Amino acid sequence: MNEKSRHLPSLNALRAFEVTSRHLSFRAAAEEIGVTQSAVAQLVRGLETDLGVKLFLRLPKQLALTDEGRAYGTDIRRAFQLFGEATLAIRPVQRSLTISATPTFAAKWLLPRLPAFMAAHPELELRILASESLASFQTDGVDIAVRQGQPPFGPGLVSELLFEQRVIAVCSPAYQPAAAEALKKENLDALVLLRDTHNLWPEFIGSGLRLATGTEAKGVRFNHTSLAIDAAIAGQGITLASDFLVEADLAAGRLVKAFDVSIHGRHDFHVVAPREPKHPGATNIVRNWLVAQRGQR
Questions:
Q1: Domain 166-264, what fold?
Q2: Would you say 137 and 279 are in contact if contact means Cβ atoms under 8 Å apart?
Q3: What is the C-alpha separation between 139 and 126, in angstroms, rounded?
Q4: Nearest partner of 25 among 14, 12, 16, 13, judged by Cα
Q5: What class does CATH assign to 3-90?
Q6: Do residues 62 and 25 touch, judged by C-beta distance below 8 A?
Q7: What CATH number is given for 96-165+268-296 in this structure?
Q8: Are 162 and 294 in contact (CB under 8 A)?
Q9: Cβ distance 25 to 43 under 8 Å?
Q10: Are the C-beta atoms of 102 and 223 separated by less than 8 Å?
Q11: pLDDT, tens digit (0-9, with 9 covering 90-100), for 97-117
């Protein structure tokens, strides 16, 4: 061991400092690392004592980096990035990865994009777990998930917004004149409203179309949104769907907007993964790919 190595601080202390320097909060740093807030504060204090340098200013309501802390944080962050890159380079990529998603998201958005992903990453084998029920990262062996709702999604999980839920009404081109006539008369009773388990029709009619929500319109109920979308394509009525899920059908002319309005749904779509995934290399590849797709709509 050379002379410089003998004086290196502990890796745990450096990690606690690096995370705290990003969040400027012992509490947030503790949540990311998975230890207590007091443990993070103690590690940072020990590092300051070891270095003989004050790294943070303890202000009444937050932390602030000193000039020395800011410069040190930049270098330490770069060092941890190098650790991560070196580890990913030497560790064999896990060949099998499980993605959890709803059946509609899997069928209408994910599956059409999989061939391009597999061509770019032939070393990976993806398992798609499509279910309306909430899959478990532990018991179901899920590595990454697309979930609807608002974060946080659970302890030890990190999430990133994929799509906001912008809900539109769609139907076949042949059915659209009936929808236009019903809206003109402000009476939807003659229409067939295709419903899924979310049943956003009352909200769409009230806040979107600004009509009375006590409509007696005929309806058919499906347990998957994808089935309601397929029924709309077949000309059986009008359904509600997140706009990005029907982009391909709209572009191909299989569907059209029944009404020129939209509403923001209650459940946005997020990419969710464990903070410490079992297979970090493969999980990062898939997560980065999913997030990149939102810019290619």
A1: D-Maltodextrin-Binding Protein; domain 2 (3.40.190)
A2: no
A3: 18
A4: 16
A5: mainly alpha
A6: yes
A7: 3.40.190.10
A8: yes
A9: no
A10: no
A11: 999 999 999 999 999 999 999
